[in-house]
């Protein structure tokens, strides 16, 4: 990972306000990195960051926010593909533990792929706070990936 990271920001509908508050609190750090979001979360994040910049009275600028499809329409899967391609460095996913989601299997797959590729992930505000406050956010970091060659080379016909 380079010193400029690519953050994936995702939130279920009932958690979008929480993510917007978190982004507003951490906007100065986030503006130094690339942001990728699913669907309407991306529109919301762009709005929050634009308002923060406007009220900041400094020379901060907003890089573009890459907006994927909405989660239920394939955005979670797009994000999972980006993780597997090494294009995402961190996942902040405020998911709703109280509501069943019609695309729960996609959500589970996204969380699984983030673990598989060993990217830092946060699913609530406190873990996101710890993640973004780490000095490693601003430094180059070498990911250690598990070697899955034994799994890939197993004899399926035994």
3D architecture notes:
This protein is an alpha/beta fold and 158 residues long. The chain has one domain (6-152): 3-Layer(aba) Sandwich (Rossmann fold), CATH 3.40.50. It is built from seven helices and five strands. It has a five-stranded parallel sheet, with helices on both faces. Strand 4, helix 5 (104-116) and strand 5 form a beta-alpha-beta unit. It is globular, with a radius of gyration of 17 Å.
- Most strands sheet: 5 strands, parallel
**What is the N-to-C order of secondary-structure elements (H for helix, E for strand)?**
EHHEHEHEHEHH
Q: Any idea of the CATH topology?
A: Rossmann fold
Percent range for β-strand residues: 5-15%
The CATH homologous superfamily is named Methylglyoxal synthase-like domain
Indicate the radius of gyration in whole angstroms.
17 Å
Secondary structure class reads alpha/beta
Poorly predicted runs of 5 or more residues: none
How is the secondary structure organized here?
Layout: E1 6-11, H1 16-25, H2 27-30, E2 34-37, H3 39-56, E3 65-67, H4 75-84, E4 90-94, H5 104-116, E5 121-122, H6 125-132, H7 149-152
Parallel strand pairs: 1-2, 1-4, 2-3, 4-5
Provide a brief overview of the structure.
Helix content is 42%, strand content 13%.
Sum up the structure in keywords.
alpha/beta, globular, Rossmann fold, single chain
